[in-house]
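[Q] Does anyone have a clean structure-token version of this?
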Amino acid sequence: MWFKNLVVYRLNQWNETAASLAEKLSRRALQPCSGLDVQSRGWVSSKGDQEPIVHVQGSQLLIALGVEKKLLPATVINQFTKARAAEIEDHQGYKPGRKQMKEIKEAVIDDLLPRAFAIRRKTAVWIDPDNRFLVIDAAGTTKADEVVEFLHKTLEGVSLSFIKTQLSPSIAMTAWLMGGEAPVNFTIDQDCELRGRGDAAATVRYVRHALDDDEVRKHIQSGKEATRLGLTWHERISFVLHENLQLKRIAPLDIIKEQAKADARDDQFDSDFALMTGELQRLLPAVIDALGGEVGDSR
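[A] Here you go.
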């Protein structure tokens, strides 16, 4: 159950135990959409149905926000709206106007919603109180913001912030490419994006391409900066670092896969979670250190 993408927050204030967290999340557990509800949000088990709402392994906690949403395609709404408008036209002798069409459409939606299919998704959240990390498995900030917003509604007193490093990821990645060398224990892979300055600036993307040639350096010399860069850490994990400090396309490499086989327990989920958290507890500080350390960190 490795996270594929990491949106990382600093836990500025966290007073919950596993038991208190479970009790508070249970009060806001996901409920099915009812009646005219289009969407419902609430906490679910990250592991599966009938499992605890908080997955605990040592001091590490895993939770998940569930979202249930009704499927009501616009094409279906329009089809029923046109059919009902035609019936009304036959009855009243003239076509419905704009205001009446709006009312017809709203009535159609009200009729269809209770019968609409619902789909569910969940977003996993890893909480590391020891190192003061909260990590969301999300490819973008929209889902991460959704989780943070609901977390604040659920827990009083929790305080989160994005991590800010001494060097911006973009400046650091550009320097690594220009110098042809990554920080200690990191290697540069074959994927990157370079973008010029300004709204209409050109963007160059390299995929499975050697990044230590003159062509890349010429783009940088012309004013382009790296906005994302593929890296490997300790020959154990590959990922793509983005300019906003998000880590995407997380992939454990062969050495970890072999370790996972050797450490396999009866419960694969628990084994994967233990291995993932152990590795990421080392990777995240290494990335922060490679970017000059965290602004305001006095530890």
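[Q] Thanks! Anything notable?
[A] The chain has eight helices and twelve strands.
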